Amino acid sequence: MNHWLTILTLVPFLGGLVIAGLGAERKNLVRGLALACSLVGLGGALCLWLHFEAKTGELQFIEKFDWVKSLGIQYFLGVDGLGLLMVLLTAIVTPLAILASWRMDDRPQVYHALILWLQAGLFGTFTALNFFHWFLFWELGLIPAFFLIKLWGGPKRGPAATQFFIYTMVGSVALLLSFLVIRLATGSFDFIDLANMAKTGELNTKLAAMMPWLSWKSNIGLIVFFGAFLGFAVKVPAIPFHTWLPAAYAEAPSPVTMLLTGVMSKMGMYGFLRILLPIFPEQIRQVLTPLLWLAVATIVLSACAAFAQRDLKRMLAYSSINHLGYCLLALFAATSVVTGVNNSDLQKAAALDGARCKCSTTASRRQRCSCSCRSSKNAAGACAALMISAASAKSCPCSPA
């Protein structure tokens, strides 16, 4: 069994512990060690990429063993193409942020230790496949960001850091409560097992069976979905859960803003693709129209707000919300064009592709390609699919050459 992913996560974490113990006067050593640890992480991520078999489409570099067996908690790591992409992004942005912080003289050992711990949290978030394990890294990625804003931010860093903490904590609590309900219903924290249960409808059945005396027991799955949705919507963020982000971007040091916009803003989208879409496909389809309009509102309103900004960082903040709104729109539109197909892998692939065209077989076995957005019964979904097609500059394969 390989332990590449564990080593990849431990290197920045242990490096941060070593750096935190150094004195503030040893600035050059602190900076050199921090850069070296981040470059080791980059080298490890490149090794994963070189040894990754893209043709299989399966999870690779898997590490799995029981951690707390009685609670269904496993140490379960693995990456597919999506996880590997996010690991590479983290490994590239972190050394750049450290280089941009080279002249940081205020408590450099604490500053660089927090950046490395943030990198470790991000690596763990993008590789963990058991909720308990994943949630630890999710929080490990948020806590250093709070202190980086609070201790090294601009004049209004206090309110910005507090707002960041409150929003992300509320989202994390909602997410935790949702998965505790799922654990009580299914006995599992495993993302892969839960996705398989969702495919067969077993997950909804078990959630409804938890409270058989309730007249609305069939909606328990939807309530659990909204709790998990809130956790990721705050992190993306989608409007109206976005108000923490402009202040955090504006007050954070520029290298920290690089990490916030370059990697941490993608954590929410990763959660949608890795967790929400595979585990709650039916619930997403039930509220698909409001979700599509939420994504459209995120795009339009954040773009308007960006035009009104006079501060460059705040403009970048609203631009980031705008671009993530397009990501949400692609995800929800892809869900709409595969409505009726209870296949989370297909839905995730469609979301990554933007708008997907599906093929149908005629009675005479002749295949013809038809653009799903044309036959969509959901007007918002059709509109979204057209917008994504235009944005990605890809022509529909069913259109004439």
Structure description:
By secondary structure, this protein is mainly alpha-helical. The protein has a domain at about 1-130. The protein is built from 17 helices and four strands. The chain has helices at about 5-20, 25-50, 80-100, 110-125, 130-150, 155-185, 190-200, 200-210, 220-235, 245-250, 255-280, 280-285, 290-305, 310-335, 345-355, 370-375, 380-390; strands at about 60-70, 75-80, 360, 365-370. The strands form two sheets. A two-stranded antiparallel ribbon has the order 1-2. Strands 3-4 form a two-stranded antiparallel ribbon. Strand 3 (about 360) and strand 4 (about 365-370) form a beta hairpin. Helix 3 (about 80-100) packs antiparallel against helix 11. The relative contact order is 0.08. Residues about 355-400 have low confidence and may be disordered.
Query: Which strand order spans the largest sheet, edge to edge or round the barrel?
Result: 1-2
Number of strands: 4
Rg (C-alpha, Å):
22 Å
Which structural class is indicated by helix and strand composition?
A: mainly alpha
- Principal-axis shape equals globular
Tell me what portion of residues adopts beta-strand conformation.
Answer: 5-15%
Report the span from N to C terminus: 49 Å
The average pLDDT is 80
- Number of DSSP helices? 17
For the sheet with most strands, the description reads: 2 strands, antiparallel
Order of helices and strands: HHEEHHHHHHHHHHHHHEEHH
Unreliable segments of 5+ consecutive residues: 353-401
- Helix amount, in percent? over 70%
